[in-house]
Specification:
Blueprint lengths: L1 H18 L5 E10 L5 E10 L4 H9 L1 H11 L7 E6 L2 H29 L1
Parallel strand pairs: 2-3
Antiparallel strand pairs: 1-2
């Protein structure tokens, strides 16, 4: 299943990059989870850029049948999975954690320099 997920993710990413355009947005397929019966695929999409990511998901949903048809030409499976798109917030959470860590770092350095001055 891991290989199936990765192949579907890679091919779907290529198809979306080639066939669809998003105005001032970077759209990335972070993960694909194909169900064990191969009938559904949950596609986790990350959207970076100005504006709301909602129109991106709507556009992907509107183009779902075309994307499935293209995917069936590239990936041969018993069934072509029904694509279900989900907005993935993991990139935003990662950036937030990174920002918090950067804020903590100067505070930790200040404490270290105060400790060395008192010695």
């Amino acid at each position: 299943m891991l290989r199936v997920n990765e192949v579907v993710r890679r091919e779907l990413s290529t198809i979306i990059t080639r066939d669809l355009t998003f105005e001032d947005m970077l759209v990335t397929i972070n993960q694909v989870d194909v169900t064990p019966d191969l009938k559904n695929a949950h596609v986790f999409v990350s959207v970076l850029g100005q504006g709301s990511p909602k129109p991106v998901i709507e556009k992907l949903e509107a183009q779902r049948t075309i994307l499935q048809a293209e995917l069936s030409k590239k990936v041969v499976l018993k069934y072509t999975p029904h694509l279900v798109f989900h907005l993935d917030h993991s990139t935003e959470r990662g950036a937030r954690v990174f920002k918090i860590l950067q804020e903590i770092e100067p505070v930790a350095e200040e404490h270290e320099s105060e400790d060395s001055k008192s010695d």
